[in-house]
Amino acid sequence: MLSGTFKDKKAETKDEITSLKAEYAAKITQAKNEGKDTSSLINERNAKIASLKQEIAQAKADYKAAVAKAKSAYKSVASEEKLAIKGQKVDIKQATLNSKSTYKDEVLAIADKSKSKSSFSNKAEQIAFKHDIAQSKVNAKDNFKKSIILDSTKRRESFVKEYNKLAA
């Protein structure tokens, strides 16, 4: 994971800085005991510490860039998902309207049949037809919910793949 990499790098570099300070402290003490000039050792130590601190800063910048990419990828996937859900809502509204018009047409057809047949058989047909329409609506809603869940799952999987690419 990204955070583990950055934290590991930071801890490793801090350990290097600590060991570098200890090493140069021993060298500087030895140089002082021998009466030598220690300014070159101090400058060398400070330069190495500065380069290690620069490595930490670079790792932090890389981490922040990766997080920003992941956030933008998430936002784009989330906006695509919202648009897809809106599209599905429009589709279900249209399907409902079509279902209602089909239902009205069928009721009118049943009414026409009722003129030629007995009242009881037409009522039975009408009740059976209404039951079929109600069942069709329930099935349509179930299918719609299943498609939303499936689409959401696919989008989340694509986001995870994109995030893992950025993390690598």
Comma- or semicolon-separated keywords:
168 residues; 0% strand; mainly alpha; 3 helices; 95% helix
What report would you give on this structure?
The structure is a single chain. It is built from three helices and no strands. It has 168 residues and is mostly helical. The chain has one domain (2-167). α1 runs antiparallel to α2 (39-116) and α2 packs antiparallel against α3 (119-167). The longest helix is centred in the middle third of the chain and has 78 residues, at 39-116. Residues 14-69 form a coiled coil. Keywords: Coiled coil.
Q: What is the CA–CA distance across the termini?
A: 8 Å
Main sheet attributes: strand count, strand direction, barrel closure? none
Return the structural class: mainly alpha
Question: For the CA atoms, what is the radius of gyration?
Answer: 36 Å
Give the overall pLDDT as a whole number.
77
What is the helix tally? Answer: 3
Task: Determine the strand fraction and express it as a percent band.
Answer: under 5%
Q: How many β-strand stretches?
A: 0
Order of helices and strands: HHH
Total number of domains: 1
Give the fraction of residues assigned to helices.
over 70%
The global form is rod-shaped
Low-pLDDT residue intervals, each spanning 5 or more residues: none
